[in-house]
Amino acid sequence: MMADGYHHYTIDEHNFYYTPSHLVWHVGEKVEITLDNRNHARPGLNHQWNMGRGLASDATGFVEHREPTGWKTNFFAGVTINTKSGVEKIQKDFSVSLTPGQHFTFKFIVPNKPGKWTYGCFLQNGQHFMDGMQGVVDVKPSI
Ligand SMILES: [Cu+2]
Question: What superkingdom does the record give (predicted)?
Answer without folding.
Answer: Bacteria
